[in-house]
Amino acid sequence: MAEYLLVRPVRLSLETVAVRSGLHPELVRRFAALSLLECTTDADGRLWFTPSTVAILARIQRLRSGLSLNYAAIGLVLDLLDRIDVLEAQVRSQRRWT
Amino acid sequence: MATDFYDALGVARTASADEIQRAYRKLAREYHPDVNADPGAEERFKEISEAYQVLSDPDQRKKYDRFGADFRRVPDDFDERAHVGGGGRVRYAQGGQGFGGGFEGIDIEDLLGGFFRGRGGSVPGADQQAELELTVEDAYRGGRRHLTLAGAAERGYDVTVPPGVLDGQRIRLAGQGGTGSGNAAPGDLYLVVRVKPHPRYRLSGRDIHVDLPVSPWEAVLGATVPVTTPGGEVKVRVTPGSSTGRRLRLRGEGMPNPKGKPGDLYAEVRVMVPKKPGKRERELFEELAAVSDFDPRSS
Question: For the stretch B158-180, what's the b/e string if a residue is b when 16 or more beta carbons lie within 10 angstroms of its beta carbon?
């Protein structure tokens, strides 16, 4: 008989994200509403986040305090930084000749 | 951290508040740890922020202009005290060792803590990225490498490079990135491998290309010649009738692969001729020229 491992879904609740990032759950909810964080909503209306959310929250706080950006601008900066990451990874993989 | 605040922002001592703000904004955008993954950027960013915090406040700026790096030790009522009996001056003279005497007793993190603290939580550090330059041989063999990252606080790491690492691959040093505020976790340091160009080896993915110089008679008659590869010397059999450009594949002699098949080594035949043939050599070539009906341009 085959055995199956019990796999937990890799997603974090709003409360877990709040605890791990040290922020108020309402602020996390607000970030989600501003579309700074990606989340899914289940049938009960609860928000679920990916594990990388904690790192993104840290980045949001650093950008806000370090460059005094407002949240709309932070959304743009996050998108641009992500795009730069993708492009840099492409450049790295295309540089095949030494 | 005893840099002059005006130097940190790159402005003159006579700079207006607008100029200071302009310089600060520009540098902050450049060195913010989320925008600039260089390991030295975070330190520089803190320096810029501290300088701006002081120079953007007219009172603090005035004090800094007057007392230099020790301005924070000067009590607020210095002028009154100096006027009354000079008591304040004595205290100041004891404490400071002149300009640039350091910040003992003042914790920079304390000053900047408020900057990163946000809403009562602590913020994890940003990830950093540095380059690790390797020769083709180093990348082939792997092994331990010592790496020093420059900065005010020089950091040294002993890194284990896996054999067969390729240009552009990243090695992650967990927890060695930017410092977090409060008791939050630091970020990670990523080392991006740069394989230096090599005079003989060219890399294409895991395949290594190398030129194989042979004499005309070796090319015609075939021969077994030694080739130096990153893994050591190997013997290659040149099949008779090999012209320049023929590639001989040595299966599995390319870059090792930790997760599967290693690359191949391609030795490309290059027919070389003597620049100044001897008398006898010349005669033989002349004879060959007379006898042979081979025309390389006919096909």
Answer: eeebebbbbbbbebeeeebbbbb
Whether residues B116 and A81 touch (CB distance < 8 A) is answered with no
Domain boundaries, chain A: 12-97
- Report the complex ipTM: 0.72
Helices (H), chain A: 14-21, 25-33, 53-67, 71-94
Length of chain B: 299
Whether B136 and chain A come into contact, CB under 8 Å, resolves to yes
CA nearest to A80 within chain B:
B35
Per this entry, what is the length of chain A? 98
Q: At A15, list the tokens.
A: 């409360």
Q: How far apart are alpha carbons B282 and B278 in whole angstroms?
A: 6
Please name the helix (run of DSSP H) or strand (run of DSSP E) that holds residue B45, with its range, or none: helix B41-55
For residue range B41-68, what is the model confidence (pLDDT) as tens digits? 888 999 999 999 999 999 999 989 988 8
Largest CA distance in chain A: 59
Q: Which of B123, B167, B203 sits opposite A58 (nearest CB)?
A: B123
Q: Which residue type does A35 have? A: S
pTM: 0.65
Residue B226: count other Cβ atoms within 10 Å of its Cβ: 9
Q: Give A90's contacts in chain B (Cβ within 8 Å).
A: none
In b/e form, how buried is each residue of B252-287, taking b as 16+ CB within 10 angstroms? ebbbbbeeeebbbbbbebebeeeeeeeeeeeeeeee
Query: Distance between CA atoms of B52 and B44, rounded to whole angstroms?
Result: 12
CA nearest to B119 within chain A: A23
Q: How far apart are CA B230 and CA B206, in angstroms?
A: 12
Residue B238 near residue B214 (C-beta atoms within 8 A) = yes
pLDDT tens-digit profile of B246-293?
999 999 999 999 888 999 999 999 999 999 999 999 999 999 999 999
Sign of the C-alpha dihedral computed for residues B40, B41, B47 and B50 taken in this order: negative
How distant, in Å, are the alpha carbons of B130, B157, B190 from that of B150?
A: 11, 12, 15
Its CATH architecture, for the domain A12-97, is Orthogonal Bundle (1.10)
